[in-house]
Amino acid sequence: MNKLLIVGTVAFDAIETPFGQTDKILGGAATYISLSASQFGVKSGIVSVVGGDFPKEYLEKLNAKNINTEGIEIIEDGKTFFWKGVYHNDLNSRDTLITDLNVLADFNPIVPEEFKDTDFLMLGNLHPAVQMSVIKQIPVRPKLVVLDTMNFWMDNTLDELMEVIAKIDVITINDEEARQLSGEYSLVKAAQKIHKMGPKFVVIKKGEHGALLFNNGDVFFAPALPLEEVFDPTGAGDTFAGGFVGHIAKSGDISFDNMKRAVISGSNLASFCVEKFGTERMENLSDDEIQKRLLQFKLLTQFDIELT
Question: Is 308 part of a structural domain of the chain?
Fold first, then answer.
């Protein structure tokens, strides 16, 4: 069985959308990624940090999904990273009210011995120095290294980010971030420029408008499934990334054709994530539900046409 190592935040979120609000609940990029990847039965582990205020039952929830949490450092006298935000009516934009880094401010990641020979590495959205530290702790390069990042790191730590980008195989970013990183408005031209920075594959997420996959001139587009109700988009991008890398880790196939299937798998799982607040939907997702929705994706995109 292939191993998947996930690096990212395990955190508290407080969320308000037009459909309601929550107090502090389980959140964080690594949490969403790992819950999504767990649907594929891969052996996964998280590298992160939390404070003494982090409930043990949250760790137990992850363990119950066969997610190894030995790499989550617990700073007993510290507080867990906390984010609070309010989404606008369109759910595409939000205002951040509180960002308390807490123990994340001095995070020094330590890769557990059991995962130093990981087959696949998922670098969740974190400071590039933390991402690079993890890369350097793995003696044999994994089969595939996937990176997620955001405009904050492009604004504040671009040089360090570029060093990480040069060492990865796949980058997953949204359309705004792709344009900022490349300086190109056309996403096709943006992907071409990003390829030259190092990644063989560029995945550009477009939220409710789907996702694009680029690889040396080849392009694949996956739509987002039209949903009747969207309650909370928090973690949808991370859930997509988890589904993407989880599918690849299960199959062990890093070809472009399999990447297409991975994009669909990621989009499929992200469509569930937004149906409830926080991680609730991902914690209680059944394989039967996943397969039925995959069929919906297939029917949405499959057609016959005569070419003349």
Answer: no
The whole-angstrom separation of Cα 124 and Cα 47 is 10
pLDDT digits (tens, 9 = 90+) for 123-156: 999 999 999 999 999 999 999 999 999 999 999 9
* Residue 38 · residue 45 · CB < 8 Å: no
- State which H helix or E strand residue 98 sits in: strand 94-100
DSSP-derived pairing of the beta strands 120-123 and 144-148:
parallel
Residue 91 lies in domain? 3-301
Q: Is there a domain that residue 260 lies in?
A: yes
pLDDT tens track for 38-47: 999 999 999 9
306 occurs within a structural domain: no
Number of C-beta neighbours around residue 169 at 10 A: 18
Counting other chains too, the contacts that 175-183 makes at CB distance below 8 Å and 24 or more residues apart are: 175/204, 175/205, 175/206, 176/151, 177/149, 177/150, 177/151, 178/202, 178/204, 180/151, 180/154, 181/154
Q: Is residue 307 part of a domain?
A: no
**Judging by beta carbons within 10 Å of its beta carbon (0-12, 13-18, 19+), is residue 115 exposed, middle or buried?**
buried
CA-nearest of 3, 48, 5 to 28 is 48
In a 3-state reduction of DSSP, which class is residue 215?
strand
Nearest to 252 by CA among 126, 141, 144, 127: 144
How does DSSP classify residue 88?
A: -
218 is written with which tokens?
């080849």
Q: Which residues contact 287 (CB under 8 A, 6 or more apart)?
A: 39
The secondary element (H helix, E strand) that includes residue 211 is strand 211-215
| 189-221 as b/e: b if 16+ CB within 10 A | ebbbebbeebbbbbbbbbbbebbbbbbeeeebe
